[in-house]
Amino acid sequence: MLKKKWAQHLLIASGVIKKLIKFAEIKPDEVIVEIGPGTGNLTKELLNTPLKTLYLIEIDPKMINYLKKNIKDKRVVFINADATKFDFSSLKEKNLKLIGNLPYNVASLIIENTVMYKNYIPCAFYMVQKEVAERLIDEKSWLSIFVKTFYEIKYLMSVPAKFFIPPPKVISAFIKLERKDFKKSFNLKEYKNFLTKLFSQKRKMIKHKIDETYLKKSGISGEKRVEELELKDFLYLYSIFQKLK
Ligand code: SAH
Q1: Which of 20, 47, 59 to mutate to test the pocket of ligand 1 (most atoms within 8 A of CB)?
Q2: Residue 123 in contact with residue 150, Cβ under 8 Å?
Q3: Which of 107, 117, 129, 215 is most buried as measured by Cβ atoms within 10 A of its Cβ?
């Protein structure tokens, strides 16, 4: 029985699954984490690659039991947990490659949590709602800036609803997050607060949302609206904020 509350839409087209796996370019000895394996359609195909370890993070205990019965492979580690809050540092692995046909109702939270553990995750491949992918890539929001600070987001392909059971009401998209070579140290919780504050009440001029001393020092006009700022402006403002706070 598939559950709506956990957005269970299983990918059934083996051609599509093969394509996703190809995009992920899994090499021998790689440690892979699959988010929301469900009944294991993607999982089984992942196990045809030379990966070293495959962690499965699934919130539904029934699915975990089903998977344990059906997948007998020494490389698999079953974890019954919530991927929006999962502590990826607990796996004690430095270079995790994440992949998943995400539950669409919490896809943004899973992406946010991915960034929170960016030091362990050089790369992630996610199936999300097409609109979410496009907004992340083309629009400015606190989350898109948060992600783009640390990752390059690539749109890999669109996937029509008919390839899922039950078919979702939306078109899907497979995206890749590729970590940038970013050396500066960020307090991620603080950076998130900084961005959400700037993005609150988007039409308001930024001088009403951030202390003018920071703006003066940056040379960025306080009369601007948040959407007029570029990624580099956010980075610059935040670095000044870090120094002066
Ligand atoms: N990968 C499978 C299933 C995708 S559906 C396939 O393609 O066929 C999304 C899966 O994510 C479901 O199995 C659902 O139970 C699981 N899920 C939902 N919310 C989750 C969460 N917060 N953390 C981990 N898994 C979750």
Answers
A1: 59
A2: no
A3: 107
